[in-house]
Amino acid sequence: MDFNDTPEEAAFRKEVRAWLDANATRKSDDKQSFRARSDDPELLRKAKAWQDKKAKAGYARITWPKEYGGRGGSPILQVIYQQEEANYLVPLGFFDIGLGMCIPTMMAYASPEHLQRYVKPALHGDEVWCQLFSEPAAGSDVAGIRTKAERDGDGWVINGQKVWTSGAHYSDYGIIITRTDPNVPKHQGLTMFFLSMKTPGVEVRPIKQMSGGANFNEVFFTDVRIPDSQRLGKVGEGWKAALTTLMNERLAVGMPSGGLDVDELMELARDTDLEDGPAIRNQQVRSKIADWYVQRQGLKLTRYRTLTALSKGQTPGPESSIIKIVAAPKMQDMGAFAMELMGPAGIMKEEVPHAAGFQAQWIGGAGFRIAGGTDEILRNIVAERVLGMPADVRVDKDVPFNKLK
Amino acid sequence: MDFNDTPEEAAFRKEVRAWLDANATRKSDDKQSFRARSDDPELLRKAKAWQDKKAKAGYARITWPKEYGGRGGSPILQVIYQQEEANYLVPLGFFDIGLGMCIPTMMAYASPEHLQRYVKPALHGDEVWCQLFSEPAAGSDVAGIRTKAERDGDGWVINGQKVWTSGAHYSDYGIIITRTDPNVPKHQGLTMFFLSMKTPGVEVRPIKQMSGGANFNEVFFTDVRIPDSQRLGKVGEGWKAALTTLMNERLAVGMPSGGLDVDELMELARDTDLEDGPAIRNQQVRSKIADWYVQRQGLKLTRYRTLTALSKGQTPGPESSIIKIVAAPKMQDMGAFAMELMGPAGIMKEEVPHAAGFQAQWIGGAGFRIAGGTDEILRNIVAERVLGMPADVRVDKDVPFNKLK
Amino acid sequence: MNFDFSDDQKLLKEQVRKFLTDKCPTKVVRRVLDGNETHAEEVWKGLVDLGVPGIGIPEEHGGLGLSPLELCVVAEEVGRAAAPVPFDTSVVLATEALKLAGSDAQKKKWLPELAAGKAIGTLAIAEGPQPPKPRGIRTTFGGGRLNGKKLPVADGEAATFAIVLANTGGQGDRAVSLVLVDLKQAAVAKKRVETIDPARKHAELTFKDAAADLLGSEGEGWRTLERLYDAAAVYFAFAQVGGAEAAMWMARDYALQRQAFGRAIGSYQAIKHKLADCYVKLELARSNAYYGAMMLTEGGADLPLAAAAARIAATDAYDFASKENIQTHGGIGFTWEADTQFHYRRARVMALALGGPMAWKDKLVTRLEQKNVA
Amino acid sequence: MNFDFSDDQKLLKEQVRKFLTDKCPTKVVRRVLDGNETHAEEVWKGLVDLGVPGIGIPEEHGGLGLSPLELCVVAEEVGRAAAPVPFDTSVVLATEALKLAGSDAQKKKWLPELAAGKAIGTLAIAEGPQPPKPRGIRTTFGGGRLNGKKLPVADGEAATFAIVLANTGGQGDRAVSLVLVDLKQAAVAKKRVETIDPARKHAELTFKDAAADLLGSEGEGWRTLERLYDAAAVYFAFAQVGGAEAAMWMARDYALQRQAFGRAIGSYQAIKHKLADCYVKLELARSNAYYGAMMLTEGGADLPLAAAAARIAATDAYDFASKENIQTHGGIGFTWEADTQFHYRRARVMALALGGPMAWKDKLVTRLEQKNVA
How far is B259 from chain D (nearest CA, A)? Predict the structure, then answer.
């Protein structure tokens, strides 16, 4: 049992590190980063340039087949590349959805001509993709979407609204799930398409979050016309296509990184004077530090177990499904507790060491418990997929969509 | 806002106290008690004698109409009597189910002749009653019972098994819910009866609990014949009758009393030396003591709010539904924590102060979380009856009982 | 047994609730949150017209001379509305501090102004990072002059006077005293500080030789503060109970209306049991708050214990209800447009204002120990 | 990345699991629980035949000379079966203590006997009420003679020798030493003590001038014990993980089969989410236990921290799974006939044996502080 690379992995890591050293700047400390998913056009420009460089060197998507610009490598090599890249000051995060979810869905359903046209620009960062799934009335229940696509001669006309679309404001293309037949049960009347975000009738509006940030968008579709050739999969089989995409999404939501954690909480506890001494000597504080350390360490080590499976060429077990269930409430509760340690000044955004960071955890945790699968949906998934427990009663399964309340 | 009696209540309390002083021995401290629901025949004999004395003095069931031996008093007077009685060394607990649940159900459904025959002996403790509802396959879902009652000439023949019957081994009579028609949906095919526990074919076997005690029984029915005159309510309307009884049960399950609580935990914490001093100085210990104190105090005060409503002649609000949800896990967790404080010797049944008491909480709490409505059922009840949330999907509602899996 | 509010008190509660429902709907909270106002002036004025600031002030000083019970029911409604008004600062903290420790002259001067809504008071204890302690207060008072900096001070901008904890040179816990300072003088500078709850504005107050006078005896500051916090803990508990209840019903209403997988999310046990837990915490908090109110009214010896219990239970209930309200709403609950955020922010501000749950749990056990000895 | 057990280790695990499934079903646990035996002798003999007691003993002393990893996988299976055998006492505590601190002569004498299953060892620390501390141990050792009383001692009746913490007259933490005592001498009296887990028998051992000799240096007892507990925490964590997993699946299986309101109770979120939480705690525990095993094997500097984390996570997982297993079963789960009780009892015994979670959390933070300084 060890954390070491296999000889093949070690060789690859060395190669990657050499290439990164030659092409990027190493971070001076691990808190340094580019702010990802920003709307700063300059940052996007830099990200595109870096993506192009990676693609040319063959590092942009290591697991993809060579014909698409990948190197047909194993998933563990992809992870190794990402681990190394994280040590360098490079702009990331703009292409994850496109390359991780949209293009793989394209690969499964699009025509050879379309793949010829779209894969390369996506890989090289020339074109950014987004995923148009969630709707105001379809969150956890993705199949409840109402955005309509109606036949119109050779093509389709799309009307409706999507929401929570990451990166829609800088995306060039998107894959979209629509309802093409409201007369059949909800999962049967769906069809998937891809489209240019510049198509007339597409309007993107940012959503301001409780945290103040605006990482997501609403996207409105008003009489948006697209040709039938942009359909992905058969008419009425959109749910099957969407599942492919969603499976990738739920794998992709990992641990939040870069936020404050146990180390900073200990630092705060050392620096905080309670009436009877430094907070770090208080057994209640210690008990919470210990609990959160055990969780953080548990998640990190669980990830190592997943990587081990990848390294051995196995499919990872269900361990990784627990990550967000643990990490999100921890983030929210630790943030709240750290603020409490600071006393009344814990509410101040400035002038109090670590305050802003822990406040971001406290408020961001509330969102992280929802995004990419709520606490409740994730527990359903663990119970059903891992423990083999029955699904809840589905009253909507066999009812035509337009007959549902 | 005060905890005082109204003048009428004060007068009644004084009267009760005088009567109790004259007829019973005051406890020297509040931990003293008779062990209730034991199978000691001598204790039962004493309990019957005390019940007779109470009945003769008009204190046995204050809220009952005078014709049945009550005094038509308000519920608050009943509570005051019980508060006062709890200070005396008298054997209690044998008649609660009979007088609290069975006889009220009889009053709602039995013939005048039967009431004439059964109410008085029950009130005076001459005859003990039990409630035969739960079955191995029908716990939380009481309406899932399978014990059959089949027509046989003028009467009925009962076959089946009941479980969790408190006091069945010393009871003279019982009310029983049976399935009389398996061809209709589950709630529609039930019928309620009463019967003598001495009827041929009735067999009582005690259930040994995890705690080692045996407060409950299994009761087996083999070709038990009873006349139709012992039916309570119409054929097929047993569920309606059972609801009357159950409503009383859920009100009756109150706080467990006599067990160790925060006071003893503090005593233990004062007397326990950890490496860095007495456990009572440890902030984690203090935090737990505070949490449990707040819960205990909250429940006690919530009960005062209920009593206030009674005192004002109002129907109590839903506050009391929270009692067991809070008290049961508290009992289990506090027991476990107290054992932890004691160190490795916390597992020993003897020679360690308070160990047996807290072990009883730890193990009894596990049972208390189940008995009289599980944590889960109680949360359903709060959500549905207090917060007005919808019931869960009921797949069994319109299906004939014998077509259910 | 009479452990409930009287019909008159309930009537007052209804009246205030009706006023706040009308005049302080969530869009008013949002206006202050998004805007620049120090507080919702029209709401504050309405409360003044209803006599709210004078409830606890004796008639001789221009108030209504009612009991703490009346103030408790009002606090619950102000909390329910998450009203952006200087209630907890002026009506609770400053008024109670004056009543507890003010000289006749101070009471005579300030209480009528408070009752009439002409003055807004606040309490200024913290000095930035670190929980306040009797040792280590750097603001000083001597020779009638106050020097130093206090932050964050709730309603510091709106306030016309402040009660300030200052070092007066004594030993240990007696190092500090409370000092009353008129904020309408040039020697006082005010600067807004940004906090997690922009609907409740906070400020930094800087004093440079500001004229001020002692409130209570020199060296008694910390002890008075502890007593003040016990009273405030009860009023805060009612406000937190009101807020928790509002958050719980907001979640319930959304859960009834929002559909997923063909039925209301409120029919799923994950949501039902979450809200049942909200209710349980709420009732524990309410019952403990009632007892606090009773002790406050009676001046009962159990007040310190009851106040601590009320504070702990109410902070827990409000924290839980406000965060699970967001969770029940899902994505929409995390947007800036959602009303869920008001209670989430306010819950944390109220949890920290008088010291957090950890400190109060320690206090509670200390008081239990004292009671058991006595 | 190779953070997993090897195929050989998994094979060993399977082998032990198969043996215990066959020979130690729950009815064997019940037999010991209800009966008078000190342990299930046939199960113990079978484990001896499989070589289990010798896994960690060097070949030169008659053992298999395998790594801690092999003992970890076996511990998991013993825990899963809640096997009533002296595994944690003899194979873990006594064997590890000898390896850590025994002289060559002591090792030469006892390790081969342990490996062959001829000796059963145990550890005797507690002296009734109060958590053990280096100060206040009343059992004394001097001039080769041991005097005093130890209780509760797990497997005290079955054991042929014990390692005893005794006062040897030093200062502070150096007041105590570990002492090895042969229990087959007249100067030792054994008496059974009743505990919450009758499937795991405990005893009181009384020493009256019993012949004994030091294990390790005089005054080093507490330090050795801390190191021993770190190693034991890892093995215990695997046993707790095994037990937690068994309880979880027991609950899952029951939830699939038990019907209420027309469907399996396992289709209700209250049950599903409860068991999902079991799984989450179990995986956190398993991952932390793996790291403990790795540090133990490597002799890594992170062992104390990893051991504490494994211990805390595994204790939590086992506590939770074993209690919610009862809850999932409902009434039937609370009967004496139910198998749910075995894990509920064992979980608590294991939680307390090496010191409870509160003590380990304090240790963990101490170790984190030391690491951050280093």
Answer: 18
Number of H helices, E strands in chain C: 11, 9
User: D21 and D38: one domain?
Assistant: yes
Total residue length of chain C: 374
CA angle A48, A54, A59 (to 5 degrees): 140
If asked whether residues D213 and D228 sit together in one domain, one would say no
One domain, residues C349 and C274: yes
d(CA C211, CA C184): 10
The whole-model pTM stands at: 0.96
Q: What is the mean pLDDT of chain C?
A: 97
ipTM of the complex: 0.96
Residue at a domain's end among D219, D248, D272:
D219
Cis peptide before D357 (omega within 30 of 0): no
A249 is catalytic: yes
DSSP single-letter state for residue B361? H
Q: Do B144 and D340 touch (CB under 8 A)?
A: no
Pairing of strands C121-124, C161-167: parallel
> Going along chain C, which residue ranges are E strands?
121-124, 140-142, 145-154, 161-167, 176-182, 188-193, 202-215, 259-260, 263-264
What are B31-81's pLDDT values in tens digits?
Answer: 656 554 456 788 999 999 999 999 999 999 998 999 999 999 988 999 899
D1 is a domain residue: no
Tokens of D119: 């000796």
Q: Residue B306 is encoded by which pair of tokens?
A: 């209920």
Q: Per the CB < 8 Å rule, is C270 touching D268? A: no
Q: Which residue has the higher pLDDT, A50 or A256?
A: A50
- C280, part of any domain: yes
Instruction: Count Cβ–Cβ pairs < 8 Å, chain A vs chain D.
Output: 161
Cβ within 8 Å, pair C270-D269: yes
Distance CA(D146)–CA(D208), nearest Å, equals 7
Which residues of chain D form beta strands (DSSP E)?
Answer: 121-124, 140-142, 145-154, 161-167, 176-182, 188-193, 202-215, 259-260, 263-264
- Number of domains present in the structure of chain C: 3
* Mean per-residue pLDDT, A382-398: 91
Residues A294, D309: C-beta atoms closer than 8 Å: yes
Nearest to C361 among B2, B287, B390 (CB): B287
Please give the backbone phi and psi of residue B97, each rounded to the nearest 5 degrees, phi first. Answer: -65, -45
| In-domain check, residue D139 | yes
Residues D363 and D232 in one domain: yes
| Assigned token pair, D343 | 């894990």
Q: Which of B324, B403, B338, B323 is nearest to B370 (CA)?
A: B324
Q: Which one of C152, C333, C358 has the shortest CB-CB distance to A340?
A: C358
Rounded distance, CA C73 to CA C65, Å?
Answer: 15
Ordered structural domains, chain B, with CATH: 7-94 (no CATH), 129-251 (2.40.110.10), 254-370 (1.20.140.10)
Q: Please say whether the beta carbons of C285 and C241 come within 8 A.
A: yes
**Which residues span the domain enclosing C332?**
223-373
Contact residues on chain A for C195, CB-CB shorter than 8 A: 347-349
Concatenating the DSSP letter of every residue in C231-276 gives HHHHHHHHHHHHHHHHHHHHHHHHHHH-EETTEEGGGSHHHHHHHH
Residues 6+ apart with CB under 8 A from A28: none
Q: d(Cα D52, Cα D115) in Å, to the nearest integer?
A: 8
For residue D372, count CB atoms less than 10 angstroms from its CB and return exposed for 0-12, middle for 13-18, buried for 19 or more. exposed
Give the chain D residue whose CA is nearest to the CA of C273. D270
Smallest CA–CA distance, residue C269 to chain D, in Å, is 6
Contacts of B286 in chain D (CB under 8 A): none
Instruction: Tell me: cis bond preceding C152? Omega within 30 of 0 counts.
Output: yes
Last residue of a domain, one of C219, C243, C278: C219
